[in-house]
Amino acid sequence: MALDYIEIKGGRRLEGEVQISGAKNAALPALATALLTSKKCVLQNVPDLQDISTMLKILEHFGARSQSFDSTYEIQIENLGSVEAPYDFVRKMRASVLLLGPLLARNGMARISLPGGCAIGVRPIDLHLKAMESMGAVISLQDGYVEARAKKLKGGEFTFGQVTVTGTINSMMAASLADGESRFLNCAKEPEVIFCGELLKSMGAKIEGLGTPTILVKGQTSLSGFSHKLIPDRIESGTYMVAAAMTKGEVLIRQTCPQYLEAVIRALKDSGANVELQSQDDILVKGANEICPLNIVTQPHPGFPTDMQAQFMTYLCLANGESQMMETIFENRFMHVPELMRLGAKITIQGSKATIKGNASLVGAPVMATDLRASASLVLAGLVAKGTTKVHRIYHLDRGYEKMEKKLALLGANIQRVPQA
Ligand code: EPZ
């Protein structure tokens, strides 16, 4: 379990098809949205991930009844139980902050343990709290908990000082049951934000401006349940596209979302890979013999996603020249660099800029995952490193990738999960 590791013997060219799962970062807020109604909610195409089961456990703690068959989950919270998200849950998953808006809107009160800083940075929730205050919530912090109270949220106006994905979603959820109209500026435009907005609209919420920086929400007195299919996971898709390009393979990425992957497709093409749409849902990636170096800057959507930064860094270790990667979203998202260097990568960091030397001949070694996307970048490195790579602490990987070793093995990788007692 916790000490399982993944063992990879590098050198195989990936070929075949990989089926993309539903988007983790749409599933988590969608499950939290079920708190806004006492009616039954149905979510299809839910990925089998640790974070999903953590969120379900938290919702059961709040009185949810849920059942699942295949990847379809039914969840209903007829009567709210507790309104406190204990530290033990929150420390496992920062996305627990998504409970704040719905609990406040449904119940007028929420107690959420402050999310400890996670591996990729401090990641405060100050913008979430200010957005709730703009709708009349009274926020107090005590003994590591955020306590939010509002007899009835009322329409407010708030400008996000920084684009925040879950901050935007939290605000839309709260405003959907507030009294009056809310206006949020400098909102996130990620596909997962649009998905959640559409989900709320299917419940009767009145929302305009999804996918633009300004979102208007007209509060309703109540919302119905929902029955919705999750969008595909664009980051899982991008990860397998990089795996195909790195191993100079040829992989068909099935049931994905090319329209959400423009920046990643652009970067792969600029690096020399061949990327073609086979249909509106399938992308064919063929690796090139020569990988051209790139200069990449992570940006909020539709820019190059920060969640693909670690994976591309591994890829650019193989480029025939020097690349640069600027991480502008999180202040400490280079934890994979020391581990990649153990495999022979030549990377230097100056603040938020990483310089990747290229032409690295990676050699397998034991490495340690530190966070979700760092784990993926280490698995990718193992695919091309000479000899055997062992990636430890893969519980990080299990949070966001469904059966990754099985999907890679089906593509021809020599990879296995080695269970530990
Ligand atoms: C979401 O996290 C994703 N998680 C992250 O994916 C993703 O990396 C991130 O958006 C950026 O795209 C989920 O959707 C569950 P933010 P989120 O609020 O919403 C600062 C993965 O790998 N900020 O958009 O928590 C924050 O510190 C995960 O799947 C504040 O300062 O990210 C960061 O520097 C990792 N105050 C920046 O904004 C706040 O109140 C963007 O954070 C909120 C955020």
Task: Give a quick precis of the structure.
With 421 residues, this protein is of the alpha/beta class. The chain has helices at 24-33, 50-61, 87-90, 100-107, 126-133, 165-175, 191-202, 234-246, 262-270, 309-316, 336-342, 372-384, 395-398, 404-410, and strands at 5-9, 15-19, 40-44, 65-69, 72-76, 84-85, 109-113, 138-142, 145-149, 157-159, 181-185, 206-208, 215-218, 227-229, 250-254, 274-277, 283-286, 295-297, 323-326, 347-350, 353-356, 366-368, 388-392, 414-418.
Q: What does this 3D model show about the protein?
A:
The protein is α/β, with parallel strands linked by helices and 421 residues long. The protein has helices spanning 24-33, 50-61, 87-90, 100-107, 126-133, 165-175, 191-202, 234-246, 262-270, 309-316, 336-342, 372-384, 395-398, 404-410, and strands at 5-9, 15-19, 40-44, 65-69, 72-76, 84-85, 109-113, 138-142, 145-149, 157-159, 181-185, 206-208, 215-218, 227-229, 250-254, 274-277, 283-286, 295-297, 323-326, 347-350, 353-356, 366-368, 388-392, 414-418. A hairpin with a 2-residue loop joins strand 20 and strand 21. The longest helix has 13 residues, at 234-246. The mean pLDDT is 95.
The bound ligands are: ligand EPZ
How far apart are the termini? 7 Å
Give the overall average pLDDT. Answer: 95
Stretches with pLDDT under 50, minimum 5 residues: none
Beta-strand residue fraction = 15-25%
SSE-based structural type: alpha/beta
Largest sheet: 4 strands, mixed
Give the strand order, joined by hyphens, for the main sheet: 22-23-1-24
